[in-house]
Design a protein that fits this description.
GO terms for molecular function: argininosuccinate lyase activity. By secondary structure, this protein is mainly alpha-helical. Helix content is 60%, strand content 5%. Helix 3 packs across helix 8 and helix 10 runs parallel beside helix 12.
Length: 461
């Protein structure tokens, strides 16, 4: 009989070695050793408050757990074959250190409520780390945007040149996406910070543990209200994985832009050597591998989300062993996201923007919308003005010239509303500066965006 197992009392035959290997999660969940220990210390004190542990026993348990934590931290904790998971390992080692009091710690508690508590504690700490990386990237973008406001470039729709914009306005479009990601992360953290401990295996805690006080001890904002829901709830993991997928998508889109902009066909930016690689065959190559890896990992984050959602899809109530995959999904996603946020910040910080190349990519055909706006300001209804501007483009194409090279007479043949002041339209700076409404690409609007984002960063430190 395998007496070393927490659940082994009713079994007479040994567990199959292949199942032992599949069932064992210590290699993954040992990352939560500190959260598991802190949760156990708080639970010991809760047991003391209802006289299931003495003061001396709680002191022994807490002192012993501090030793266990130190062993993990110093890398000297010895994981044994029978250590199925982090909970088993910590309890086994605690018993070795302090003896009988360790065997009283688990009363009323299940690994079902213990593990979800550990994960929430781990996520609460580490998602704040993720937010720091996000905010660092936003800060890096803001620094560039504030120092490069004069650079003009084409704005694109359908990857076709559309309208002139400021380079800083383009950069800030990514900053706003990331700011939204940070805001969403705060909302996820609020939902995570609800304590499930005290739910037992599924029916609750029979010893009238003061869960509200226990939650306060562990800095939770509240407690779960249904034990069955609490032990099976992995919505917070799914939500984190989806959130990570969105961040990955935002980083992937930024990376895709810079991959395109760094090509010889564009040459808007040059990726720094420290974030580029070369070719083993072609000496002239500068490959944007940093950006390509960001793009690739962004896709894999979504794959992880889909995979875990399928785990949850048809589970019966309440806890099922399928949920053991939650920690691998959580840790893998977290690690990947940290790595690409760090690389993205470094790539953005060190890249060189080639302002002349950006400006030389502008052409007067991009001012066709401005021609329509010119006519609108003359009192022409927009739909008619848009049609007339299209005729201007068609006439220029027919003559094989730019729209700015059409004579006034040729323009008047399309509409008598054209006058000599049409010449003011053929100016990229003027075009950009007309978009002064909040959210536009005019310098005043760009500076307003930078101020807003900096205020948000300072407010949320």
């Amino acid at each position: 009989m395998e007496n070393h197992k927490l659940w082994g009392g009713r079994f007479t035959d040994a567990t199959s070695p292949c199942l032992e290997k599949l069932n064992r999660s210590i290699d993954v969940d040992k990352r939560m050793y500190e959260e598991d220990i802190e949760g156990s210390k708080a639970y010991a004190k809760a047991l003391q408050s209802i006289r299931l542990l003495t003061v001396e026993e709680v002191e022994a348990i807490c002192d012993g757990l501090d030793i266990v934590k130190r062993e993990w931290k110093e890398g000297v904790f010895e994981v044994l074959h029978e250590d199925e998971d982090i909970h088993t390992a910590n309890e086994r080692r605690l018993k070795e250190l302090i003896g009988a009091p360790a065997t009283k710690l688990h009363v009323g508690r299940s690994r079902n409520d213990q593990v979800v508590t550990d994960m929430k504690l781990w996520m609460r700490l580490n998602l704040r780390r993720l937010d720091e990386y996000l905010r660092n990237l936003i800060s890096t973008i803001l620094y560039r945007a504030s120092h490069e406001t004069e650079i003009m470039m084409p704005g694109y729709t359908h990857l076709q040149r559309a309208q002139p914009v400021r380079w800083s306005h383009y950069l800030l479009s990514h900053a706003w996406n990331l700011k939204n990601d940070s805001d969403r992360l705060g909302e996820i953290l609020r939902r995570i910070n609800v304590m499930p401990l005290g739910s037992g295996a599924l029916a609750g805690n029979p010893f009238n543990i003061d869960r509200i006080n226990l939650a306060a001890t562990l800095d939770f904002d509240g407690i779960t209200q249904n034990s069955m829901q609490a032990v099976s709830d992995r919505d917070f993991i799914a939500e984190f994985l989806f959130w990570s997928s969105m961040v990955g998508i935002h980083l992937s889109r930024l990376a895709e832009d810079f991959i395109i902009y760094s090509s010889k066909e564009f040459e808007f930016v040059t990726i720094d050597d420290s974030y580029s690689t070369g070719s083993s065959l072609m000496p002239q190559k500068r490959n944007p591998d940093s950006l390509e890896l960001i793009r690739s990992i962004g896709g894999s984050l979504f794959g992880q989300c889909c995979s875990f959602m399928m785990v949850l899809k048809s589970l019966p109530s309440t806890y099922n062993k399928d949920l053991q995959s939650d920690k691998e999904a959580m840790f893998t996603t977290f690690d990947k996201l940290i790595s690409i946020l760090e690389v993205t910040a470094g790539t953005v910080k060190t890249l060189k923007v080639n302002s002349e190349k950006c400006k030389s990519a502008l052409n007067f055909e991009m001012l066709a919308t401005d021609v329509a706006y010119y006519l609108v300001r003359k009192g022409v209804p927009f739909r008619e003005a848009h049609h007339l501007a299209g005729q201007v483009v068609a006439k220029a194409e027919d003559k094989g010239v730019s729209i700015c090279d059409l004579t006034l007479e040729e323009l008047k043949s399309i509409s008598n509303n054209f006058g000599v002041d049409i010449g003011k339209v053929w100016n990229y700076e003027n075009s950009i500066e007309q978009y002064q409404a909040i959210g536009g690409t005019a310098k005043s609007s760009v500076l307003r965006q930078i101020k807003e984002l900096n205020s948000w960063l300072e407010k949320n430190i």
